[in-house]
Amino acid sequence: xxxxxxxxxxxLFFIPVDLYILCLRIKNKRKALNNYGNAGTxxxxxxxLSYKKVYFKWGILTLACVFLTIALARPVKMGAEVKxxxxxxDVIFLVDISKSMLAEDExxxxxxxxxxxxxxxxxxxxxxxxxxxxxxxxxxxxCPSTIDTNTIVEFTDEISVDLSSLxxxxxxxxxxxxxxxxxxxxxxxxxxxxxxDGETHAPVDNNDLEWFTKNKIKIYAIALGSEEGAxxxxxxxxxxxxxxxxxxxxxxxxxxxxxxxxxxxxxTNAIFIENEKQxxxxxxxxxxxxxxxxxxxxxxxxxxxxxxxxxxALFLFLMELLVLERKxxxx
Length: 331
Known about the structure:
Helices cover 41% and strands 23% of the residues. The chain is built from ten helices and 13 strands. It is flat, with a radius of gyration of 28 Å.
């Protein structure tokens, strides 16, 4: 059994909070009785209150919440892995997640605009192979190659500059990671789409691009940001509290490096995308790419299992409503 939305299981950590609320509730009930009731009333109320039923109700409610949480996480039973051949274009999204991508000279900011570009391309080419490589001062594979459109879109939505804690930007390391990975796996039928503002602390020269050019791997650079530049906001609770400053205390202005991005595309015989209006030109180029036969490994969902947990959860919620806390009633 696996879960489609495993992050939902984190809600189970709130069960101790439920226990705390129960204890607080019992304490407040005792306090209220002491403040507003006479001695006879207090004695009667306390004697009629069944603490066994109180804890029994809490146990039922807790178990119901556990079952409901598991149901919401969408447990599924996976079938055997299926291998099949499919004609696909193989695209690597190389995405800049350095702090400069928070600049707001793209709306709402550079990183969100990059994600919008990516999703537009993914939706235009369902059932093709996409992977995600992210970089700042280092580079890593965030999502391996997949033809599952929903999976790649979900990973794209989760891209954030917070995925890297290291300051700085090294496009050079990103190219090294991709080159070494392709050589190791003996793959050369790839297309790279670079989404960046072009700011990098490790210079990229023609030698870094030579291997890609030699193996006819095109790098389509999509420029983000403006040449005029913008400040880098520092946010707290989704509100900008200040802007990033250099060591002298001056606010940093991050500018797009158009020349570098143009050179990357030019040296690999690809086109350079400067704004959203030029995106159709990139899509047109992708349409012209030769699709390659690729062996796709995919596990098929054999059975949805959520109802095995949802039905007991609903039954337990109903039972909790019917059980009263007093001794003088049967239920």
